[in-house]
Amino acid sequence: MLVRHGQSEWNLTNTFTGFTDVGLTDRGREEARIAGHLLAERGYRFGVAFTSALKRAHQTLDIMQEELGLPDLPVIRDAALNERDYGDLTGLNKDAAREEFGEEQVHIWRRSYDIAPPGGESLRDTGARVWPYYIHTILPRVMRGEGVLISAHGNSLRALIMALEGLTPDEIVHRELATGVPVVYRLAADTSLEESLILEHSEHTKTVNA
Predict the structure, then answer these.
(1) 149-168 pLDDT, tens per residue?
(2) Which three-class secondary structure state does DSSP give residue 207?
(3) Catalytic residue (one of 58, 66, 67, 83)
(4) Mean pLDDT over residues 82-106, rounded?
(5) For 145, left (φ over 0), alpha (ψ -120 to 50), or beta?
(6) What mean pLDDT value characterizes the chain?
(7) What is the DSSP letter of 89?
(8) Number of DSSP helices (H) and strands (E) in the chain, helices first
(9) Dist CA 45 CA 146 (whole Å)
(10) Could you give the strand order of the β-sheet that contains 148-152, starting from the edge strand earlier in sequence?
(11) Quick check: 75 and 61 in contact, CB under 8 A?
(12) How does pLDDT run across 22-68, given as a tens digit for each residue?
């Protein structure tokens, strides 16, 4: 189960966030609550949770655990699941960045697969830390039959989705993830994708660009 954290303070101000450790807005906390409620009402059970080293993901997970009635769920935190590092763009309003660097250049940095902003990571770079962590740490827990809940970020989760769904670089750069919307994956015995499902609550969720 993959869940992008609820709306953060810098999502709200349209600011490049990356590794900056900002918290959730009131809306973000509500999105996390709804996500937890959706999982609980559908009877999903979890044996372990994974999250990044950033508090917006922690806060989202904490709220979901409350809704699920799983306050003691084992949680593993690792920077391998952190958001993409936006380098020199970090802290800049996205509209201001377009004015400074040009709309086309900012679009290339945000939506290309392998071109990184100055001092930062591309989506491929993000995948280079997410994929080994998934293979060596997360996947074995899934294959042992544990329900695995992952609360992370738009780009770290897109890198993971690329691996799970076998998407091409061109396909993944066009994939958007709404904040606070659970995505369910079921894997076959050979680790291939068997089923996927988006648990979207249309009245409360909205895509926020990473």
Answers:
(1) 999 999 999 999 999 999 99
(2) strand
(3) 83
(4) 96
(5) left
(6) 94
(7) G
(8) 9, 6
(9) 9
(10) 75-77, 48-51, 148-152, 2-4, 183-187, 193-198
(11) yes
(12) 999 999 999 999 999 999 999 999 999 999 999 999 999 999 999 99
Phi, psi of 42 (to 5 degrees): -95, 0
Contacts of 82 (CB under 8 A, 6+ apart): 19, 52, 53, 54, 152, 153, 156
φ, ψ for residue 77, nearest 5 deg: -105, 135
The pTM assigned to this predicted structure is 0.93
Catalytically annotated residue among 5, 31, 121, 153: 5
What is the rounded CA–CA span in Å between residue 210 and residue 207?
9
Cβ-defined contacts of 141-144 (< 8 Å, 24+): 141/47, 141/48, 142/187, 143/187, 143/191
User: Which H or E run contains 12?
Assistant: helix 9-12
Report which of 158, 195, 198, 206 is spatially closest to residue 182, judged by C-alpha positions. 198
pLDDT at position 202 is 56
- Nearest alpha carbon to residue 51 among 140, 122, 136, 148: 148
Q: Does the annotation count 5 as an active-site position?
A: yes
Contact 117, 91 (CB under 8 A): no
Mean pLDDT confidence for 64-81: 97
| Domains of the chain as residue ranges with CATH | 2-195 (3.40.50.1240)
Q: What is the dihedral of CA 34, 207, 175, 57, to 10 degrees?
A: -50
Helix (H) or strand (E) holding 187: strand 183-187
